[in-house]
Specification:
There is one protein chain. By secondary structure, this protein is of the alpha/beta class. It has 2 domains: 83 residues, 3-Layer(bba) Sandwich (FAD/NAD(P)-binding domain), CATH 3.50.50.60; 203 residues, no CATH class. The strands form 6 sheets. It has a 4-stranded parallel sheet with strand order 10-9-11-12. A 3-stranded parallel sheet has the order 1-2-13, covered by helices on one side. Strands 14-15-16 form a 3-stranded antiparallel sheet, with no helix packed on it. The mean pLDDT is 92.
Length: 314
């Protein structure tokens, strides 16, 4: 790269890349991030999976993943990244991420019992183990006893409340489904969760939805929705939904693009920019040059070539 001096170049703008950039910038380094395209945050459910299933028991969720990866896994696979990190550094890394999400106003949390996995519903009503999840997903924890009403909208793609509720019921979870008219959300007929989440940033639109949810929710029920609780003003939307309905309102992740991931990426990128970290996309790394390190720690990369839309850039 040319034109300015940096201490660290991070290649990739996914979870690992942005966390590396944030950690280095916090330590006082001058950092730049380059990436070919969007990272995995735009495509995943928006949660942090520490370890969900053991290789020798792929159908049985792991209950205490931190204990598993620093115990059984570390003994059987001593070169596994978790084993090399060790428990203290692994916990510190997870705690650092949670602290960052609080700073961003997009808080993540875990199970009621520290060290355990959450079990969250998927868009088909299956149970999915995960270690950390956005605040808006925590209310869907299947370990809780409150019944659920899964609310969908006619014509909204990739979210079928009846399917979700039926499959949850087969697992012993009290769940029922309600399908609301699409015009509760918008007048547009062809719309996805990203567009609807953006629409919920408008107080008038979310007030209309809140009014409908108050009518249909029974006392003590949790309300499960597709990921439409705001895009740029998510914290305010979630607060309004829960305070005005008087119920626990939660999101169920759907197919990509990931609304929870998009929220986090945008807020994280903005924070990095304020820290002086550039995050540039459409910059595929095609080659690099290295030289021996002066401290004997191995080769040091001193030049990276990226293919831009116009010409290679160094």
């Amino acid at each position: 790269m040319s034109g300015h001096s940096i201490d660290l170049l991070v290649i990739g703008a996914g979870w690992s890349g942005l966390m590396a950039a944030y950690t280095a910038a916090n330590a006082g380094l001058k950092v730049q991030v380059i990436a070919k395209g969007l990272g995995s945050m735009h495509w995943a459910a928006g949660s942090i999976d520490l370890f969900g299933y053991a290789p020798d028991a792929p159908d049985t969720p792991i209950h205490r993943p931190l204990e598993y990866v620093t115990g059984k896994l570390a003994k059987e696979q001593p070169q596994h990244p978790y084993a090399l990190l060790g428990k203290d550094r692994l916990v510190a890394a997870l705690d650092s991420f949670v602290a960052l999400t609080h700073e961003l106003g997009l808080s993540y949390g875990g199970a009621a019992q520290p060290g355990e996995n959450l079990m969250l519903p998927t868009a088909v009503g299956a149970a999915r183990p995960t270690y950390l999840a956005p605040q808006a997903q925590l209310g869907g924890d299947l370990g809780r006893s409150e019944p659920m009403v899964i609310v969908g909208f006619e014509g909204l793609r990739d979210f079928y409340p009846q399917l979700i509720a039926e499959n949850l019921a087969k697992q012993g979870i009290q769940a029922r489904a309600v399908l609301l008219p699409f015009d509760v959300l918008t007048d547009r007929r062809d719309s996805n969760t990203v567009q609807q989440a953006h629409g919920m940033d408008d107080p008038a639109r979310r007030s209309r939805l809140i009014s409908e949810l108050k009518k249909l929710a029974k006392p003590g029920e949790r309300i499960g929705l597709p990921p439409i609780l705001g895009l740029d003003d998510h914290a305010a939307v979630l607060f309004d939904m829960q305070s005005q309905t008087g119920a626990t309102v939660f999101e169920i992740a759907t197919l990509p693009p990931s609304v929870p991931g998009m929220r986090l990426f945008k807020a994280w990128r903005n924070r990095l920019n304020k820290m002086g970290v550039r995050v540039d996309s459409n910059m595929e790394v095609v080659s690099a040059q290295s030289e021996p390190s002066s401290n004997g720690a191995g080769p040091s990369v001193h030049l990276v070539e990226s293919a831009t839309s116009a010409r290679p850039m160094k």
